[in-house]
Amino acid sequence: MILQKLFSRRGAFLGVDDPASDLLNPAAWLISALNGEDGSITAKQAARNSNVYACVSILADDIAKLPIHTFTVDGGRDEGQKHPAARLLYERANPLMSAFTFKQTLQAHLGLYGNAYALIAWGPSGYPAALWVLDPSVTVPRLDIATGQLTYHTHDRAGRQYVLQPSDVLHLRTMTLNGIVGVPPWKTLVPELDGQKATKEFIRNFYKNGTHVSGVLQADTKIDAEAKNKLRGEWNKIYGTPENAGKVAVLDMGLDYKPLGMQLDQAQFIETQKFGINEVAKVYRVPPHKLAQLDRATYANAEAMGLDYIKTTLLPIFTQWEQEINYKLFTEAERAKYYVKFNAAAELRGDSAMRAQYYKQMIETGVYTINEVRAMEEQLAIGENGDKHFVSLNYTTLDNLEALQLAKAGSARLKGGEGDGSTERAADADDGA
Question: Would the pTM count as exceeding 0.90?
Answer without folding.
Answer: no
